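User: What would this chain look like folded?
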Amino acid sequence: TIALAVVVLVLIAVVVGLARQAVYQIGDLHADVAQFLSRQSGLHIEFDAIAGSWKGLAPRFQIEQLRVSQSDQHEAAIVARQVDLEVLLLQSALQRQPRLRLNVAGLDLTLSKRNGRMEIDGLTLAPSAESSHFRLNDFADMVSRQPRLSVTDSQLQLKGLYAQDVTLSVQQLQIESGKVRRYASGRVTLRGPSNLSFDLKAQVRGSLLQQGSISGDVYLDAGFADWLPWIPAEQRKFRNVTLDSMQGGNESWLKFRNGKLVDAASRFSNHDFNLTSNSEVQPPRVKSLAGVARWQTDVHGNWNLGVENLRMVTPSFVWQPKDLQVSSVLQD
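Assistant: Here's the prediction, encoded as structure tokens.
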């Protein structure tokens, strides 16, 4: 028995040694690795260089200038300046699925909303590929569920989520996944009608690409910005007045259930919040508006908005109501 154990240990040591040597030499197999990945995915994958190393019992691969396209006749749909991939062998073996630490820098791609899902522009799997073991959206979900995913200095073009195309600039975003929930933190900027920058933290569950799937809590700390261009023109108009300007910053705590916002609290501070009227008497110019608001809705679509610690400063007076409540109830 002891002799058998010694033989097994020796065989394991030999296999690990060979694997380590193969990982270190993977740069010499650059073209073969690209062809293998292309065959497995049904896509065209290429990169300028790949290097391998070991970190403990985890092989690590660094890929430079990754490009993914539908075929060698198409332009790249996914571009990444650098991909750092660490394969957690022990966790992968225990959970019987790939477990990775993935760091991506300089990612550039376009996501479009189609049929309730976000899909990557330029990548359309053929029916034969869709029915095979590789599915692009499933693969993207699998990547987002890894123990750690880090994205830096990246640009994502977003289509179909807003009236105009929006660019999501990711300065830094890290996602860590547990058995059920995913935890995210980072700093991002939305570039569209105006620039909105956020520090964010979140704990959510569900698919990041499937509409109506996400549930959980999100915290956003937004710096000073011009918010008015993001509000559709029809939603700026009320019975007698129209929202004319809205600039400021806020902290927001959001709760989602099955992809829908059900609870939102915000500590806001606006330095330019003005309304205009078609009548001769105009609303007072608001120099600053600050307070804490909470909006909640129920399964029937009824909602309630409460505002506390409101302070509105105009050139002629200061208004500080103790509490404001607005409710909406749908009639049968």
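The first strand starts at residue 44 and ends at 46. If you want, I can go into more detail on any region.
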